[in-house]
Amino acid sequence: MPDSNENAQDSFELLACHECDYLYKLPPLEERTLARCHRCGSVLAEGDGDSIDNTLAFTMAALICFVIANAYPILGLRAAGQEQFYTLFYGAVVLSKFDLGAVGFVVFLTTILFPLLSMIGLLYVLIPIKTGRRPRYFIPIFKFTLALLPWGMIGVYMLGVLVSIVKLGDLATVVPGWGLYALVSLLLVSVAAVTTLNPRIIWQTADRLQQVKSDGGVDSKQIDNSSQGSHNVSLPDSP
Amino acid sequence: MISKQRNYVGVSARKSGMAACHVCHLVVSLETLKDDNSCTRCHTPIHSRKVESISRTWALVCTAVILYIPANIYPIMTVSKLGQGEPNTIISGVMHLIHSGMWPLALIVFVASIIVPVGKLLVLMYLLYSVQNRSKNHPKDRTSLYRILELFGHWSMVDVFLVSILVALVDLGFIATIEPGIGVLYFGAVVIVTLFASRAFDPRLIWDVIDDDIG
């Protein structure tokens, strides 16, 4: 490469497109800018616009909404002067009455357990990082959280709730419960949390914090230099 | 945009003897890796490509196709009013919605439970076929197709959630009874298996043929 030697001293980050494996030397990105692969168009990386603060705030809000959404009924039916409500958890449990416990378990995992664990995981990782400490067991817990995120399906569940409101509309009066409002809020803030989440920045910040720890905080100049968390790797000449 | 300057190396990571960790995306040089072959940052085993991607994806796609048959034959729920009811399969459920004039709803259920899973399986088969035949046509479009697949795959779960919600709501049975059918188990399995199938596929295989030409 003609310019690889010139750039060798500058701070850049080596990145491979995860959809086509094209190799990039990424310069520090400005806030809220996206770097896209020029070959396949997928997003390579996102600049850090206070992503840790934003994700932390949205995740805290999501946890509150989650508790309310689970504590109060989602929907109720009113017919013949009677009202009956169901909660998120009961929606999963009820299927086991009909020998479909496996389906109920999947519903429980995707709408309750996985969203809850990924919120707790994010808070566990982000709160210490925010206060300048690297959390204990950072690597396994953050890996676990990232693996769980795609399996939370609150948005899909919300669509199911909307469809069932319309579908039952001609059968009986459908009454929204407090849980429904919390579920809508949970959906909004959790989408915001996932959108602002920038795992690249979190890995880099955690790397830097470990460096601080192992340097005993003495070599602060070196830490400042690597503030983009870049990994300077000497590139082989392309064939 | 990245392409204003020459920020790219002009070659794939694999061609330059490197690999990206699939969890933390750190690019490591394969030569400098220790014997355990794991990422220097997050200790995940490093593979240049997903292991056995094509055969694993084929296996999962075939499983999903087989499961899709009972998912459509068996009823997903039985709605009965005043003791009379008929079992509904996925397709007859959509028909019912159309007949009762709720066509926007019918469209949602139709797209989520028929178009998305069937389309997803067809697209995966096409991608697998094109990679196995070392196709060089439209690699960018095929990558976009894969990206769309990953984005919309889980929306098929809406039918499973719908059954769970309806059954729970009407459980006391003073208006009607709604009983879930075994079809929902098969349909749920189809959705989960196709989710795993699309994650087993490695879109970088589409580009490897092209990279082989460059290098």
What attributes does this structure have?
heterodimer; A: 239 residues; alpha+beta; 2 domains; 3-stranded antiparallel β-sheet; two-stranded antiparallel sheet; 52% helix; 13% strand; disordered N terminus; B: 215 residues; mainly alpha; two-stranded antiparallel ribbon; 6 strands; elongated
Structure description:
The complex is a heterodimer of chains A (239) and B (215). Chain A is of the alpha+beta class. Chain A folds into two domains: 1-48 and 220-239, no CATH class; 49-197. In chain A, 52% of the residues lie in helices and 13% in strands. Chain A contains eight helices and seven strands, in the order E-E-E-E-H-E-E-H-H-H-H-E-H-H-H. Chain A has helices at residues 51-71, 88-93, 101-130, 138-148, 154-168, 178-196, 199-215, 220-225, and strands at 13-16, 22-26, 34-36, 43-46, 75-79, 82-86, 173-176. In chain A, strands 6-5-7 form a three-stranded antiparallel β-sheet. Chain A has a two-stranded antiparallel sheet with strand order 1-2. In chain A, a hairpin with a 5-residue loop joins strand 1 and strand 2. Chain A is elongated. Residues 1-9 and 217-234 of chain A have low confidence and may be disordered. The two termini of chain B are 25 Å apart. Chain B has helices at 53-73, 90-99, 103-132, 139-152, 158-169, 183-200, 204-214, and strands at 8-12, 18-20, 27-29, 77-81, 84-88, 177-180. In chain B, helix 2 (90-99) packs antiparallel against helix 3 and helix 3 (103-132) packs across helix 4. In chain B, a hairpin with a 2-residue loop joins strand 4 (77-81) and strand 5 (84-88). Chain B has two domains: 1-48, no CATH class; 53-214, no CATH class. Chain B has 215 residues and is mainly alpha-helical. Chains A and B meet through strand 1, strand 2, strand 5, strand 6 and helix 2 of A and strand 1, strand 2, helix 3, helix 4 and helix 5 of B. Strand 2 of chain A pairs antiparallel with strand 1 of chain B, so a sheet runs across the interface.
